[in-house]
Amino acid sequence: MCWLSETRVGYRGVYDVKTLKRKRTFKIKNSNISTYKILNMKKVTHPHRAEGFSTGAYSDGLIVNGFVFVSGQASVDFATSEFQLGTIEEETHRTMQNLKAILEAAGSSLDQIVKCTVHLSDIRDFAKYNEVYSSYFGDRKPTRTTVQSILAEGLKVEIDCIAVVNE
């Protein structure tokens, strides 16, 4: 337990009052004892990410308080730093493989996903996408939201997820 006398909780995290710079910790109030717990975040990277390959201003995943939050993944070959465009089935398969690799690097697995958000460039591809997606899960499938979105680079599918991490 740690008291933070020089910080303020803002909309997107904890800020140092003197410098107004964001810290890499978040405060969550424990209503039972009126103190604050500090949650450390651990960055997770795709295990096959090529040196110098940057996909944007975000982490592949972050582990926080027993959960891993995985950023939207797509049909990317992390070893060659290239998008792998194809059919909706091919892109869904590669996207799920990328999610799996990041989850395993975090100490989790596809079986421990709690929630997925899926973006399809064409909602008419839903049945084909869903056939491949559902093959990655057993009887207990995670909760899911699926929407149609405009995706970069001509991609057909992007998936992010939240999963439990093994302790």
Topology summary:
Layout: E1 7-10, E2 13-16, E3 25-30, E4 35-40, E5 42-44, E6 61-64, E7 67-73, E8 76-77, E9 82-83, H1 88-105, E10 113-120, H2 126-134, E11 143-148, E12 157-164
Parallel strand pairs: 10-11
Antiparallel strand pairs: 1-2, 3-4, 5-6, 6-7, 7-12, 8-9, 10-12
Helix pairs in contact: 1-2
Report on this model:
The protein has 167 residues and is of the alpha+beta class. It has two domains: 7-39, no CATH class; 42-164, 2-Layer Sandwich (60s Ribosomal Protein L30, Chain: A), CATH 3.30.1330.40. The protein contains two helices and twelve strands. It has helices at 88-105, 126-134, and strands at residues 7-10, 13-16, 25-30, 35-40, 42-44, 61-64, 67-73, 76-77, 82-83, 113-120, 143-148, 157-164. It has a six-stranded mixed β-sheet, covered by helices on one side. Strands 1-2 form a two-stranded antiparallel sheet. Helix 1 runs parallel beside helix 2 (126-134). The radius of gyration is 18 Å and the shape is globular. The two termini are 20 Å apart. The model is unreliable at 1-21 and 31-36 (pLDDT under 50).
Unreliable stretches:
1-21, 31-36
Helices and strands: which structural class?
Answer: alpha+beta
Cα-to-Cα separation, first versus last residue? 20 Å
Strand order of the largest sheet: 5-6-7-12-10-11
Number of strands: 12
* CATH hierarchy class name of the largest domain: Alpha Beta
State mean pLDDT (0 to 100 scale): 82
Helix content: 10-25%
Q: What's the alpha carbon Rg, rounded to whole Å?
A: 18 Å
Order of helices and strands: EEEEEEEEEHEHEE
Number of domains: 2
* Name of the CATH homologous superfamily of the largest domain: RutC-like
**What profile does the largest beta sheet have?**
6 strands, mixed
If you consult CATH, what is the topology of the largest domain?
Answer: 60s Ribosomal Protein L30, Chain: A
Shape: globular
